[in-house]
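Structure tokens please, single chain.
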Amino acid sequence: MLVFNCTEAASDFFSRVHKGKKITPVQSPPSATIADDQAGDSKLELSQWLVHAITVQRKHVLLAIHLQTRYCMIFAEMKKADVDGFVQAFTQRWMNNMLDHAMQSGVLEWVEYPSMHERFTDFNREFSFYRRSDRSAQGHLNEIVWIFKEYAADAGCLLPDEVAASGYDIWTNRTPRGSKGHQDLYFPDEEMLIHWLQKFCGASEASAQEARELRSQLNRESYAQEWALRKAELGI
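Here you go.
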């Protein structure tokens, strides 16, 4: 089950007024803290995300960050109060991004598409929106928002299509992050790939570790290439 924890801005985005009455899918949370949700029903699997809304170039932009892995996706030019549109865009992007990550990391052959798709669809069939935030994840979102606004200002536009949006997600999630429960910095794309392979593809611990090593190598190579280009620009 998907749980979208909404900031105040996101709660306002998903709400509308009809005949003077406020209509919103965003409910009061079942628990004071996100960690306590699972205690209510240990058999219920939850995927906790924090959703935030901003306005860039007079257009609505939503950001969703996975609380466990800090994997973030950005949805530009969203229609206000279109809950179904957001959920559809969210699940489709999540699926497509993970298949791209699996292909880039050389583990796509581990994905048995029919069974993976069935598990993924069943898991995401139910969802809830709660009015609740998370200070740590919000800190990461604030940084991502600042960088995205700089990108939009330089580009003169938002992400024009899904290809551009997925590409920006890839770039964003290669930024090392730190959070409670992790001793060292980690890459959100790497953590989410492992999470996805285990949850929806039935990957073993050994397979997950192999995938982690492959993705880590890919990230190291990408950073080395970017640094080489940067040094060439600086004449170092």
